[in-house]
Specification:
Elements (H helix, E strand, L loop, with lengths): L2 H8 L5 H6 L7 H15 L8 E5 L5 H8 L3 E6 L2 H14 L6 E5 L5 H5 L4 E7 L8 H7 L4 E12 L4 H13 L3 H25 L6 H4 L9 H10 L8 H9 L3 E7 L6 E8 L3
Parallel strand pairs: 1-2, 1-4, 2-3, 4-5
Antiparallel strand pairs: 5-7, 6-7
Helix pairs in contact: 3-4, 9-11
Protein backbone atom coordinates (compact mmCIF):
# COMPACT_ATOMS: atom_id res chain seq x y z
CA UNK A 1 0.00 0.00 0.00
CA UNK A 2 1.34 3.46 -0.91
CA UNK A 3 1.75 6.23 1.66
CA UNK A 4 -1.06 8.10 -0.06
CA UNK A 5 -3.44 5.14 0.18
CA UNK A 6 -2.60 4.63 3.86
CA UNK A 7 -3.43 8.27 4.61
CA UNK A 8 -6.69 8.01 2.68
CA UNK A 9 -7.68 4.94 4.68
CA UNK A 10 -6.86 6.74 7.93
CA UNK A 11 -9.06 9.67 6.92
CA UNK A 12 -6.19 12.15 6.80
CA UNK A 13 -6.12 12.61 3.01
CA UNK A 14 -8.69 13.00 0.25
CA UNK A 15 -8.54 10.50 -2.62
CA UNK A 16 -7.46 13.08 -5.18
CA UNK A 17 -6.35 10.46 -7.70
CA UNK A 18 -9.63 8.56 -7.57
CA UNK A 19 -11.59 11.75 -8.20
CA UNK A 20 -9.47 12.85 -11.15
CA UNK A 21 -9.44 9.39 -12.72
CA UNK A 22 -13.09 10.03 -13.65
CA UNK A 23 -12.12 13.24 -15.44
CA UNK A 24 -10.91 11.15 -18.38
CA UNK A 25 -14.55 10.27 -19.05
CA UNK A 26 -15.39 13.88 -19.93
CA UNK A 27 -12.12 14.96 -21.52
CA UNK A 28 -12.33 16.18 -25.12
CA UNK A 29 -10.44 18.39 -27.54
CA UNK A 30 -12.20 21.54 -26.38
CA UNK A 31 -11.11 21.03 -22.77
CA UNK A 32 -7.53 20.40 -23.85
CA UNK A 33 -7.52 23.62 -25.87
CA UNK A 34 -8.88 25.57 -22.88
CA UNK A 35 -6.03 24.18 -20.75
CA UNK A 36 -3.52 25.29 -23.38
CA UNK A 37 -5.02 28.77 -23.46
CA UNK A 38 -4.81 29.11 -19.67
CA UNK A 39 -1.10 28.22 -19.75
CA UNK A 40 -0.43 30.65 -22.58
CA UNK A 41 -2.27 33.46 -20.80
CA UNK A 42 -0.68 33.07 -17.39
CA UNK A 43 2.85 32.25 -18.59
CA UNK A 44 2.73 35.01 -21.22
CA UNK A 45 4.10 32.57 -23.79
CA UNK A 46 2.43 31.45 -27.01
CA UNK A 47 4.60 28.36 -27.38
CA UNK A 48 6.84 26.29 -25.10
CA UNK A 49 9.09 24.88 -27.80
CA UNK A 50 12.51 23.88 -26.48
CA UNK A 51 11.49 24.45 -22.85
CA UNK A 52 11.33 21.93 -20.01
CA UNK A 53 8.12 21.78 -17.96
CA UNK A 54 7.75 20.17 -14.53
CA UNK A 55 4.19 19.40 -13.38
CA UNK A 56 4.31 19.09 -9.58
CA UNK A 57 1.25 17.13 -8.52
CA UNK A 58 0.01 16.35 -12.01
CA UNK A 59 -3.49 15.15 -10.96
CA UNK A 60 -5.36 14.19 -14.12
CA UNK A 61 -2.39 15.09 -16.32
CA UNK A 62 -4.40 17.64 -18.33
CA UNK A 63 -1.85 20.43 -17.99
CA UNK A 64 1.08 18.14 -18.65
CA UNK A 65 -0.68 17.24 -21.90
CA UNK A 66 -1.31 20.91 -22.67
CA UNK A 67 2.36 21.76 -22.07
CA UNK A 68 3.51 18.93 -24.36
CA UNK A 69 1.11 20.08 -27.10
CA UNK A 70 2.58 23.57 -26.79
CA UNK A 71 6.04 22.14 -27.46
CA UNK A 72 7.56 21.48 -24.03
CA UNK A 73 9.49 18.47 -22.83
CA UNK A 74 7.39 17.42 -19.84
CA UNK A 75 8.16 15.72 -16.53
CA UNK A 76 5.15 14.89 -14.33
CA UNK A 77 4.94 13.48 -10.83
CA UNK A 78 2.29 13.03 -8.17
CA UNK A 79 2.12 11.67 -4.63
CA UNK A 80 -1.05 9.71 -5.42
CA UNK A 81 -0.45 6.57 -7.54
CA UNK A 82 -3.96 6.85 -9.03
CA UNK A 83 -3.11 10.30 -10.34
CA UNK A 84 0.06 8.87 -11.85
CA UNK A 85 -2.01 6.11 -13.48
CA UNK A 86 -4.53 8.62 -14.85
CA UNK A 87 -1.78 10.83 -16.23
CA UNK A 88 -0.16 7.78 -17.83
CA UNK A 89 -3.46 6.85 -19.46
CA UNK A 90 -3.85 10.40 -20.75
CA UNK A 91 -0.38 10.20 -22.26
CA UNK A 92 -1.26 6.85 -23.88
CA UNK A 93 -4.42 8.28 -25.44
CA UNK A 94 -3.23 11.68 -26.59
CA UNK A 95 0.58 11.88 -26.80
CA UNK A 96 2.41 10.72 -29.92
CA UNK A 97 5.90 11.47 -28.54
CA UNK A 98 6.03 9.55 -25.29
CA UNK A 99 9.79 10.08 -24.97
CA UNK A 100 9.04 13.78 -24.43
CA UNK A 101 6.73 13.15 -21.46
CA UNK A 102 8.02 11.33 -18.37
CA UNK A 103 5.66 10.37 -15.52
CA UNK A 104 6.36 8.92 -12.08
CA UNK A 105 5.31 8.82 -8.43
CA UNK A 106 7.01 11.32 -6.12
CA UNK A 107 6.46 13.83 -3.33
CA UNK A 108 7.24 17.54 -3.35
CA UNK A 109 8.10 17.16 0.36
CA UNK A 110 10.82 14.58 -0.39
CA UNK A 111 13.97 16.66 -0.87
CA UNK A 112 16.06 13.62 -1.81
CA UNK A 113 13.63 12.85 -4.61
CA UNK A 114 13.54 16.46 -5.81
CA UNK A 115 17.31 16.73 -5.82
CA UNK A 116 17.66 14.13 -8.56
CA UNK A 117 15.16 15.85 -10.86
CA UNK A 118 17.42 18.72 -11.86
CA UNK A 119 16.05 22.10 -12.92
CA UNK A 120 13.36 23.18 -15.36
CA UNK A 121 12.43 26.24 -17.39
CA UNK A 122 8.85 26.12 -16.06
CA UNK A 123 7.63 24.62 -12.80
CA UNK A 124 3.86 24.30 -12.61
CA UNK A 125 1.82 23.37 -9.53
CA UNK A 126 -1.83 24.40 -9.68
CA UNK A 127 -3.84 23.76 -6.53
CA UNK A 128 -1.39 21.21 -5.14
CA UNK A 129 1.01 22.65 -2.57
CA UNK A 130 -1.79 23.55 -0.15
CA UNK A 131 -2.81 19.86 -0.08
CA UNK A 132 0.58 18.47 0.96
CA UNK A 133 0.17 18.90 4.71
CA UNK A 134 3.17 21.27 4.80
CA UNK A 135 2.42 24.03 2.32
CA UNK A 136 5.19 26.48 3.16
CA UNK A 137 7.84 23.77 3.06
CA UNK A 138 6.50 22.61 -0.30
CA UNK A 139 6.58 26.21 -1.56
CA UNK A 140 10.21 26.45 -0.51
CA UNK A 141 11.15 23.08 -1.99
CA UNK A 142 10.06 23.99 -5.53
CA UNK A 143 12.39 27.00 -5.69
CA UNK A 144 15.44 24.82 -6.31
CA UNK A 145 13.75 23.17 -9.30
CA UNK A 146 13.70 26.31 -11.46
CA UNK A 147 16.55 27.50 -13.66
CA UNK A 148 17.67 31.13 -13.28
CA UNK A 149 15.34 33.14 -15.48
CA UNK A 150 12.73 30.36 -15.34
CA UNK A 151 9.06 30.61 -14.39
CA UNK A 152 7.15 29.28 -11.39
CA UNK A 153 3.38 29.03 -11.88
CA UNK A 154 1.44 28.08 -8.74
CA UNK A 155 -2.11 28.41 -7.45
CA UNK A 156 -2.96 28.45 -3.74
CA UNK A 157 -6.20 28.71 -1.80
CA UNK A 158 -7.13 32.21 -0.75
CA UNK A 159 -7.00 32.85 3.01
CA UNK A 160 -10.43 33.92 4.22
CA UNK A 161 -9.69 33.44 7.90
CA UNK A 162 -12.79 32.14 9.74
CA UNK A 163 -14.42 31.04 6.47
CA UNK A 164 -11.32 29.02 5.63
CA UNK A 165 -11.48 27.44 9.09
CA UNK A 166 -15.08 26.46 8.43
CA UNK A 167 -14.09 24.70 5.21
CA UNK A 168 -11.19 22.97 6.93
CA UNK A 169 -13.68 21.33 9.29
CA UNK A 170 -15.97 20.33 6.41
CA UNK A 171 -13.08 18.72 4.54
CA UNK A 172 -11.96 16.79 7.63
CA UNK A 173 -15.48 15.44 8.06
CA UNK A 174 -15.71 14.50 4.38
CA UNK A 175 -12.51 12.46 4.63
CA UNK A 176 -13.56 10.74 7.86
CA UNK A 177 -15.41 7.98 6.01
CA UNK A 178 -18.39 7.11 3.82
CA UNK A 179 -20.89 8.78 6.13
CA UNK A 180 -18.91 12.01 5.99
CA UNK A 181 -18.69 11.90 2.19
CA UNK A 182 -22.39 11.27 1.69
CA UNK A 183 -23.43 13.85 4.26
CA UNK A 184 -21.24 16.61 2.84
CA UNK A 185 -22.25 15.90 -0.77
CA UNK A 186 -25.96 15.75 0.17
CA UNK A 187 -25.69 19.03 2.08
CA UNK A 188 -23.52 21.10 -0.25
CA UNK A 189 -24.28 20.03 -3.82
CA UNK A 190 -27.76 21.62 -3.58
CA UNK A 191 -26.26 24.68 -1.86
CA UNK A 192 -23.72 25.15 -4.66
CA UNK A 193 -26.41 24.71 -7.31
CA UNK A 194 -28.82 27.14 -5.63
CA UNK A 195 -26.11 29.75 -5.00
CA UNK A 196 -25.08 29.55 -8.65
CA UNK A 197 -28.69 29.88 -9.79
CA UNK A 198 -29.33 32.97 -7.65
CA UNK A 199 -26.07 34.55 -8.80
CA UNK A 200 -26.96 33.98 -12.44
CA UNK A 201 -30.46 35.40 -11.99
CA UNK A 202 -29.11 38.54 -10.31
CA UNK A 203 -26.57 39.00 -13.10
CA UNK A 204 -29.20 38.19 -15.75
CA UNK A 205 -27.21 35.25 -17.07
CA UNK A 206 -28.52 32.00 -18.46
CA UNK A 207 -28.25 29.55 -15.49
CA UNK A 208 -27.66 26.62 -17.84
CA UNK A 209 -24.47 28.23 -19.18
CA UNK A 210 -22.85 27.76 -15.75
CA UNK A 211 -22.78 24.04 -16.51
CA UNK A 212 -22.43 23.98 -20.29
CA UNK A 213 -19.61 26.54 -20.38
CA UNK A 214 -17.69 25.56 -17.25
CA UNK A 215 -15.06 23.87 -19.40
CA UNK A 216 -13.89 27.38 -20.32
CA UNK A 217 -12.47 27.49 -16.80
CA UNK A 218 -9.10 25.91 -17.65
CA UNK A 219 -10.86 22.99 -19.34
CA UNK A 220 -12.04 21.62 -16.00
CA UNK A 221 -15.24 19.84 -14.89
CA UNK A 222 -17.70 21.46 -12.48
CA UNK A 223 -18.69 18.14 -10.88
CA UNK A 224 -15.15 16.99 -10.17
CA UNK A 225 -14.11 20.47 -9.06
CA UNK A 226 -16.96 20.46 -6.54
CA UNK A 227 -15.87 17.07 -5.20
CA UNK A 228 -12.24 18.17 -5.08
CA UNK A 229 -13.23 21.29 -3.15
CA UNK A 230 -15.44 19.48 -0.63
CA UNK A 231 -12.95 16.71 0.09
CA UNK A 232 -9.62 18.39 -0.58
CA UNK A 233 -7.71 17.65 2.61
CA UNK A 234 -5.01 18.39 3.85
CA UNK A 235 -5.97 22.02 3.35
CA UNK A 236 -3.97 25.21 3.92
CA UNK A 237 -4.46 28.78 2.75
CA UNK A 238 -2.37 31.89 2.14
CA UNK A 239 -2.92 35.59 1.60
CA UNK A 240 -1.55 36.89 -1.73
CA UNK A 241 0.84 39.32 -0.06
CA UNK A 242 2.32 36.53 2.07
CA UNK A 243 3.03 34.45 -1.03
CA UNK A 244 4.58 37.45 -2.79
CA UNK A 245 6.86 38.23 0.17
CA UNK A 246 7.83 34.57 0.56
CA UNK A 247 9.10 34.24 -3.00
CA UNK A 248 10.56 37.74 -3.25
CA UNK A 249 12.85 36.88 -0.33
CA UNK A 250 13.99 33.82 -2.30
CA UNK A 251 14.92 35.69 -5.46
CA UNK A 252 11.67 35.65 -7.44
CA UNK A 253 9.72 38.50 -9.01
CA UNK A 254 5.97 38.38 -9.67
CA UNK A 255 5.10 38.77 -13.37
CA UNK A 256 1.43 37.67 -13.39
CA UNK A 257 -1.26 37.56 -10.71
CA UNK A 258 -4.91 36.51 -10.69
CA UNK A 259 -6.66 36.82 -7.34
CA UNK A 260 -10.01 35.72 -5.91
CA UNK A 261 -12.16 37.77 -3.60
CA UNK A 262 -13.77 34.70 -2.04
CA UNK A 263 -13.35 30.94 -2.36
CA UNK A 264 -10.91 29.49 -4.84
CA UNK A 265 -7.26 29.81 -5.75
CA UNK A 266 -5.05 32.82 -6.30
CA UNK A 267 -2.73 32.25 -9.26
CA UNK A 268 0.88 33.47 -9.31
CA UNK A 269 3.58 33.40 -11.95
CA UNK A 270 7.06 34.27 -10.70
CA UNK A 271 10.29 34.75 -12.61
CA UNK A 272 13.44 33.54 -10.91
CA UNK A 273 16.20 36.14 -10.87
CA UNK A 274 19.32 35.48 -12.89
CA UNK A 275 22.19 34.49 -10.65
Amino acid sequence: MSDSSAEINKGTRFAFGENWSHFLDVLDENRIQEAETSLQTMLKLDRLDGLTFLDVGCGSGLFSLAAWRLGAKVYSFDYDPQSVATTSEMRRRYCSQKDLWHIETGSVLDTNYLRQLGQFDIVYSWGVLHHTGNMWQAMDNVTSLIVPGGRLFIALYNDQEYISQFWLNIKKFYCSGNIGQLTVKFAFFPVFALAGLLSDILRKKNPISRYTEYRKNRGMSLKYDWIDWLGGYPYEVAKPESVFDFYYERGFNLIKLSTRQSLGCNEFVFLRNME
